[in-house]
Design brief:
With 94 residues, the protein is an all-alpha fold. Helices cover 79% and strands 0% of the residues. The protein contains four helices and no strands. α1 runs antiparallel to α3, α1 crosses α4 and α3 runs antiparallel to α4.
Length: 94
């Protein structure tokens, strides 16, 4: 039961970062304070989902095929989130 629950949570985490495109279609999401907060939250979520899925795979023992696919995708998201976060921090400080 634990394996199925963790796999389901990781599977949902794969699709959540794509919802930013739905929010960014609205005018309020493109304005300055909301845009930075939203992007920061999505970056934090992507990094968290990569760490969560990797920990569930490595320490939790959830090693089915779907979890392997979710781990690869979420780790790519986490790496991209770290790069984008560093880039945003660099541009904010420069």
């Amino acid at each position: 039961m634990k394996n199925k629950l963790l796999t389901a949570v990781s599977s949902v985490m794969v699709f959540v970062p794509w919802t930013i495109f739905l929010f960014r279609m609205h005018d309020w999401a493109l304005q300055s304070p909301v845009a930075e907060i939203m992007i920061g939250c999505y970056i934090a979520f992507m990094v968290f989902s990569g760490i969560f899925t990797s920990v569930c795979y490595a320490k939790g023992g959830v090693k089915n095929k779907l979890m392997q696919i979710c781990m690869v995708i979420n780790d790519v998201y986490a790496f991209g989130g770290l790069v984008l976060g560093a880039w945003a921090l660099y541009s904010a400080l420069a």
